[in-house]
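To the team - zinc ion complex, inputs and output below.
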Amino acid sequence: MHHRYLEELRQRGYRITPQREIIIQAVADSTAHLTAEDVLKLIRPRSEAINIATIYRTLEMLVEEGLVIRSDLGQGQAVYAPQQHGPHIHLVCRHCGEVIAADHTMADSLQEQIRARYHFEADFTHITIFGLCAQCQSQEK
Ligand SMILES: [Zn+2]
Ligand SMILES: [Zn+2]
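Output:
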């Protein structure tokens, strides 16, 4: 998967340094969400020279190019996931932190309404909705 990412970035005029390549490989070949810290841990064995600032910059570049999706799962740190991770809606319990992956097609009608009303192409491939899970609701009662 990361070869396609590298090729697309080169075609768009990005210069891919060896450090960037290692970072891109780690996130592009992942199927899960990764924080910048997770990426750092993953690549540590391969390169000691890469720092967290370089990782953030590279991840943000991938987000800007639409290759990686940035989300907030309520952990205080953004999580990054490659395109192939989605689409799904994350239902995150604000109390216990449980994450449920829900069917993204439920967002279709909302996307339709936003398009019609604001001419805005909403990106619903990987969105987060915060709330309370069934178990925490019963505990609150
Ligand atoms: Zn809960
Ligand atoms: Zn996800």
